[in-house]
Here is the input.
Amino acid sequence: MEYNRVPQNEQNRLEREFEQIIGHSPALKSVLAEVKRVAPTDSTVLVLGETGTGKELIAHATHNLSPRCGRPFIKLNCAAIPFDLLESELFGHEKGAFTGAVAQKIGRFEMADTGTLFLDEIGDIPLALQPKLLRVLQEKEFERLGSGRTHQIDVRLIAATHRDLTEMVSRNEFRSDLYYRLNVFPVLVPPVRERREDIQPLVSHFVEVFAQRMGKHIEQIPQATMNALIAYSWPGNVRELQNLIERAVIRSDNGVLPNPLPGSKKEDAEATTLSNGTFLESQRALILQALEATDWVIGGPLGAAARLGLKRTTLVSKMKKLGIYQPRRQRVLDEFNERSELAI
Here is the structure.
C-alpha cells in the first residue's frame, strides 16, 4: 500500500495550514476541548509539555478563540534572553536607565496591552525577577526600568514550559506563589508517541508544505517509510518530525519520499520487515492500553474504540489480527488447548 499525494495549488492556503494544529487523535481532541473551554475567559493558562510538542500553537489557538483575537499577540522566549536583558525585555526601560540604554524601550507587557502575552519557557525566568513578574500578574501594573511612573495594563498571560515546575518549587528554584498564580488553568500537550494516530496526517501535511516550497512533486510515501515513522519514538516530537520530513523532501527522487530516520539506509527488505514488526507491536500496545483503561469495554462513547478514534468493528477486526482477546475468553482458549494436548 502507498500513500498518494494530492498537490495543493494555493500557496497562501498552504502557509495558513502550516500554522494549524494537525491531528485527530483522542489525546489531541482532549487538549483542544480544554482550549475551547478556557479561551473565552481572561484566566492565565499554563501550557505544559515536552520540547517540540507545539505549545506555542496551543497558545496562539487560545488567543485566536478569545475575545482578544485581533489584538496584539506578543511572545517572548524567556530562555533565549540573557538575564541582564530579560527585565528590560519584559517591562521596558527609559533612556539612560543603564549603560547602553541610549533610547526609551517599550517592554513586551506594554506591547501586549489589551491583547495576549505568551511567555515561553517560563521556568527559565531567574528567581530575582520572579517577584516583579508576580506583581504585574496580580496588580496589572509595572514600572519601566529607570522610571518611577506606574503603567496600568490589561494583558492576558499564557505561559509555557517543558520543566516540572512543582519539582522546581520543591528545590526552591521557582517561587511557589508565582507557580500558583501561573497554574490557574493548566493544559498538558501530549508527546507525539502518545498520539501516533496523528503521525500520518502530520507527515502528509509537512510533505505537502515542503514540496510546495521547494518546487518538488512528491507522489508517494511508501508503506514501509510510513510504518517506520509511525513506530519511531520521536523524542523531539513535532519539531523533530517536521525537520526530518524537510530533509526527506530535499533528498527525494522520482516523486518518492525516502525514509529520513537514522539508520534507514539498510537493505529495503530488512527495513520493511523491521518497520512492519515494530509498527504491529506499537499498535498492539496502544490497543491493549486503551482496553485496560476502559475495563475492556469496546463500544460506546466511553469504550476503547472511541478512545482510539476507531469504529467498533474496526477495533474488533484489529484485535483479531493481533491476537488480542478479552481475559475471560483467553482463559477459555488456554483451557481448551490444554485439554486438546492431553487428549493427544
Q: What stands out?
A: The two ends are 43 Å apart (CA to CA). Confidence is low (pLDDT under 50) at residues 1-18, 266-275.
